Amino acid sequence: MSVVSSITLIKQNDPRYPRSLFEHLRHTAPAELAALGNLDILQRKTLALFCSVKCPGDLILKTYDLAQQLREAEVAVIGGFHSPMERECLTILLRGNQPLIVCPARSLKNMRLPSAYKKPLDQGRLLLLSSFSEKERRHTAELANRRNQLVAALATAIVVSHAEPAGKTEALCRQVLHWGKPLYTHRSDLNKNLLSMGAVPLDSLPGL
Asked: Does domain 3-204 have CATH number 3.30.70.120?
Protein backbone atom coordinates (compact mmCIF):
# COMPACT_ATOMS: atom_id res chain seq x y z
CA MET A 1 0.00 0.00 0.00
CA SER A 2 1.29 3.46 -0.89
CA VAL A 3 0.52 5.48 2.22
CA VAL A 4 1.17 8.87 0.63
CA SER A 5 -1.13 8.31 -2.37
CA SER A 6 -3.85 6.92 -0.10
CA ILE A 7 -3.94 9.89 2.30
CA THR A 8 -6.95 12.20 2.06
CA LEU A 9 -6.70 15.79 3.32
CA ILE A 10 -9.83 17.23 4.92
CA LYS A 11 -9.82 21.01 5.29
CA GLN A 12 -12.11 23.02 7.57
CA ASN A 13 -14.41 23.98 4.68
CA ASP A 14 -14.86 20.32 3.70
CA PRO A 15 -18.30 18.95 4.72
CA ARG A 16 -16.51 15.85 6.03
CA TYR A 17 -14.61 17.94 8.60
CA PRO A 18 -16.04 17.05 12.04
CA ARG A 19 -18.13 19.89 13.49
CA SER A 20 -17.26 18.76 17.01
CA LEU A 21 -13.73 20.10 16.52
CA PHE A 22 -15.08 23.62 16.00
CA GLU A 23 -17.42 23.21 18.95
CA HIS A 24 -14.80 22.08 21.46
CA LEU A 25 -11.41 23.24 20.14
CA ARG A 26 -12.70 26.48 18.60
CA HIS A 27 -9.81 28.66 17.37
CA THR A 28 -7.33 25.81 17.99
CA ALA A 29 -9.21 23.39 15.71
CA PRO A 30 -6.70 22.03 13.17
CA ALA A 31 -6.73 23.66 9.73
CA GLU A 32 -6.84 20.23 8.11
CA LEU A 33 -6.89 16.55 8.92
CA ALA A 34 -5.01 13.79 7.12
CA ALA A 35 -6.92 10.53 6.86
CA LEU A 36 -6.11 7.02 5.70
CA GLY A 37 -8.85 4.41 5.62
CA ASN A 38 -12.63 4.47 5.75
CA LEU A 39 -13.78 8.08 6.17
CA ASP A 40 -17.35 6.95 6.88
CA ILE A 41 -16.20 6.01 10.39
CA LEU A 42 -15.91 9.73 11.15
CA GLN A 43 -19.71 9.89 11.06
CA ARG A 44 -20.07 7.23 13.75
CA LYS A 45 -20.54 7.79 17.47
CA THR A 46 -17.25 6.78 19.08
CA LEU A 47 -15.92 5.92 22.52
CA ALA A 48 -12.44 7.24 23.35
CA LEU A 49 -10.05 5.17 25.46
CA PHE A 50 -7.33 6.76 27.61
CA CYS A 51 -5.03 5.49 30.35
CA SER A 52 -1.99 6.95 32.07
CA VAL A 53 1.37 5.32 31.36
CA LYS A 54 1.39 3.81 34.85
CA CYS A 55 -1.70 1.72 35.55
CA PRO A 56 -2.25 -0.28 38.79
CA GLY A 57 -2.53 -4.04 38.35
CA ASP A 58 -6.16 -4.28 39.47
CA LEU A 59 -7.16 -1.71 36.87
CA ILE A 60 -5.12 -3.45 34.17
CA LEU A 61 -7.29 -6.56 34.58
CA LYS A 62 -10.47 -4.49 34.52
CA THR A 63 -9.31 -2.70 31.37
CA TYR A 64 -8.58 -5.99 29.61
CA ASP A 65 -12.13 -7.05 30.42
CA LEU A 66 -13.46 -3.71 29.15
CA ALA A 67 -11.61 -4.01 25.83
CA GLN A 68 -13.05 -7.49 25.31
CA GLN A 69 -16.55 -6.23 26.12
CA LEU A 70 -16.17 -3.36 23.63
CA ARG A 71 -14.95 -5.81 20.98
CA GLU A 72 -17.84 -8.19 21.54
CA ALA A 73 -20.37 -5.31 21.51
CA GLU A 74 -18.70 -3.93 18.34
CA VAL A 75 -18.50 -0.43 19.83
CA ALA A 76 -16.67 2.08 17.58
CA VAL A 77 -13.53 3.13 19.48
CA ILE A 78 -11.12 6.05 18.98
CA GLY A 79 -7.76 6.68 20.61
CA GLY A 80 -4.11 7.51 20.30
CA PHE A 81 -3.28 4.07 21.70
CA HIS A 82 0.15 5.17 22.89
CA SER A 83 0.43 4.23 26.58
CA PRO A 84 1.13 0.54 27.33
CA MET A 85 -2.45 -0.13 28.49
CA GLU A 86 -3.92 1.68 25.48
CA ARG A 87 -1.74 -0.38 23.13
CA GLU A 88 -2.92 -3.60 24.78
CA CYS A 89 -6.53 -2.50 24.24
CA LEU A 90 -5.82 -1.78 20.57
CA THR A 91 -4.36 -5.27 20.10
CA ILE A 92 -7.59 -6.75 21.46
CA LEU A 93 -9.84 -4.45 19.42
CA LEU A 94 -8.00 -5.08 16.14
CA ARG A 95 -9.06 -8.74 16.40
CA GLY A 96 -12.73 -7.78 16.41
CA ASN A 97 -15.16 -6.39 13.85
CA GLN A 98 -15.97 -2.95 15.23
CA PRO A 99 -14.84 0.33 13.59
CA LEU A 100 -11.67 1.92 14.94
CA ILE A 101 -10.06 5.35 14.63
CA VAL A 102 -6.36 5.52 15.47
CA CYS A 103 -4.83 8.99 15.90
CA PRO A 104 -1.02 8.98 15.91
CA ALA A 105 0.81 11.91 17.52
CA ARG A 106 2.65 12.59 14.26
CA SER A 107 2.15 13.08 10.54
CA LEU A 108 0.81 10.16 8.54
CA LYS A 109 3.32 10.82 5.76
CA ASN A 110 6.04 8.16 5.63
CA MET A 111 4.61 6.50 8.72
CA ARG A 112 5.31 2.78 8.83
CA LEU A 113 2.01 0.97 9.18
CA PRO A 114 1.95 -1.98 11.59
CA SER A 115 1.13 -5.26 9.87
CA ALA A 116 -1.89 -5.64 12.19
CA TYR A 117 -3.49 -2.61 10.45
CA LYS A 118 -3.61 -4.18 6.98
CA LYS A 119 -6.59 -6.49 7.43
CA PRO A 120 -8.86 -3.94 9.20
CA LEU A 121 -7.92 -1.31 6.59
CA ASP A 122 -8.83 -3.74 3.81
CA GLN A 123 -12.09 -4.51 5.62
CA GLY A 124 -12.96 -0.82 5.81
CA ARG A 125 -13.20 -0.77 9.60
CA LEU A 126 -10.06 1.24 10.39
CA LEU A 127 -9.32 4.95 9.94
CA LEU A 128 -5.99 6.60 10.70
CA LEU A 129 -6.42 10.29 11.44
CA SER A 130 -3.82 12.99 12.09
CA SER A 131 -3.86 16.77 12.48
CA PHE A 132 -0.07 17.10 12.11
CA SER A 133 1.96 18.52 9.23
CA GLU A 134 4.55 16.62 7.22
CA LYS A 135 7.40 18.04 9.32
CA GLU A 136 5.91 16.64 12.55
CA ARG A 137 7.13 13.07 12.26
CA ARG A 138 8.39 12.33 15.78
CA HIS A 139 6.24 11.70 18.83
CA THR A 140 6.71 14.40 21.49
CA ALA A 141 4.86 15.24 24.70
CA GLU A 142 3.46 18.39 23.07
CA LEU A 143 2.16 16.50 20.03
CA ALA A 144 0.68 13.81 22.29
CA ASN A 145 -1.19 16.46 24.26
CA ARG A 146 -2.59 18.02 21.06
CA ARG A 147 -3.51 14.55 19.77
CA ASN A 148 -5.35 13.69 22.98
CA GLN A 149 -7.33 16.94 22.74
CA LEU A 150 -8.29 15.95 19.19
CA VAL A 151 -9.39 12.45 20.24
CA ALA A 152 -11.44 13.76 23.15
CA ALA A 153 -13.08 16.43 20.97
CA LEU A 154 -14.03 13.86 18.32
CA ALA A 155 -15.39 11.24 20.73
CA THR A 156 -19.01 10.99 21.82
CA ALA A 157 -17.96 9.73 25.26
CA ILE A 158 -14.64 9.09 27.00
CA VAL A 159 -13.40 6.21 29.14
CA VAL A 160 -10.30 6.73 31.28
CA SER A 161 -9.05 3.54 32.94
CA HIS A 162 -6.70 5.45 35.22
CA ALA A 163 -5.31 8.97 35.46
CA GLU A 164 -2.44 9.71 37.78
CA PRO A 165 -3.34 12.53 40.19
CA ALA A 166 -2.13 15.91 38.90
CA GLY A 167 -1.01 14.28 35.63
CA LYS A 168 -1.76 15.20 32.03
CA THR A 169 -4.51 12.61 31.65
CA GLU A 170 -6.27 14.00 34.72
CA ALA A 171 -6.03 17.50 33.21
CA LEU A 172 -7.60 16.16 30.01
CA CYS A 173 -10.44 14.70 32.09
CA ARG A 174 -11.15 18.12 33.56
CA GLN A 175 -11.29 19.52 30.05
CA VAL A 176 -13.71 16.80 28.94
CA LEU A 177 -16.03 17.52 31.87
CA HIS A 178 -15.83 21.26 31.11
CA TRP A 179 -17.03 20.46 27.59
CA GLY A 180 -19.95 18.57 29.10
CA LYS A 181 -18.98 15.23 27.55
CA PRO A 182 -19.69 11.94 29.36
CA LEU A 183 -16.59 10.70 31.21
CA TYR A 184 -16.43 7.14 32.57
CA THR A 185 -13.90 5.29 34.69
CA HIS A 186 -13.60 2.04 36.66
CA ARG A 187 -15.28 2.02 40.05
CA SER A 188 -12.20 1.79 42.29
CA ASP A 189 -10.51 3.60 45.16
CA LEU A 190 -7.59 3.94 42.76
CA ASN A 191 -9.75 6.30 40.67
CA LYS A 192 -11.05 8.46 43.51
CA ASN A 193 -9.59 11.54 41.84
CA LEU A 194 -11.71 10.97 38.71
CA LEU A 195 -14.87 9.91 40.51
CA SER A 196 -14.70 12.93 42.81
CA MET A 197 -14.45 15.34 39.88
CA GLY A 198 -17.54 13.90 38.20
CA ALA A 199 -16.56 10.78 36.25
CA VAL A 200 -19.29 8.13 36.13
CA PRO A 201 -18.55 4.51 37.17
CA LEU A 202 -18.09 2.27 34.15
CA ASP A 203 -20.87 -0.09 35.15
CA SER A 204 -23.20 2.76 34.11
CA LEU A 205 -21.84 2.85 30.56
CA PRO A 206 -24.80 2.27 28.18
CA GLY A 207 -24.62 -1.01 26.32
CA LEU A 208 -22.17 -2.70 28.69
From this structure: no
> What confidence tens digit (pLDDT) does each residue in 110-135 have?
899 999 999 999 999 999 999 998 87
Contact (CB, 8 A) for 194 and 170: yes
Distances (CA, A) of 186 to 71, 80, 160, 203: 18, 20, 8, 8
CA–CA dist 41, 154 (Å, integer): 11
Rounded CA gap, 21 and 42, in Å? 12
Amino acid at 18: P
CA nearest neighbour of 126 among 93, 154, 100: 100
CA distances from 173 to 34, 93, 160, 164, 205 (A): 26, 23, 8, 11, 17
Tell me the one-letter amino acid at 141.
A
pLDDT for 4-63, tens place per residue? 448 999 999 999 999 999 999 999 999 999 999 999 999 999 999 999 999 999 999 999
Q: What is the largest CA-CA distance in the chain?
A: 49
Say if residue 146's pLDDT is above 50: yes
Vertex 159: Cα angle to 114 and 27 (nearest 5): 85
